[in-house]
Amino acid sequence: MEVVLRAVHDSDLPVFFRQTNDPEALRMAAFGPADPADRDAFEARWKRIRSSADVARTVLADGDVVGSAAVYGEPGEREVTYWVDRAYWGRGVATAALRGLLAEVPERPLHARAAADNQGSLRVLEKCGFRITARARGFANARGEEIDEAVLVLNG
Fold this sequence. Notes:
single chain, 5 helices, 7 strands, four-stranded antiparallel beta sheet, three-stranded antiparallel beta sheet
């Protein structure tokens, strides 16, 4: 399967909205929006992302839109995030997308966070060179409670 990144197009947004409203994926990601079904908030968030200095990309697998990947935040504290459609989990798409994003954004350090029980995401991050540097607790909107999270860093 060929995984590539490209700039986000307006036509990608409905796909992203559908993907981020998958209850199983939301639960696994844990730290999503307070109301994932709020289309106005979703649109406002993506408008802000696309007009900022953040690097946001659409993830394509064999030409199909299957997710997004981004680097955002202040210099020295920039963080990666990604979302891959559940139908593509376990197929190497997230790892390939993150590797592509890291090649495009060479600045280091980069940070990441993941629910401590999200073994799939932790595995992707570790394959791409991130290392767990701390543990924290945070409120997970998708689970309605505070949960453990892993804090990771990718250095030079």
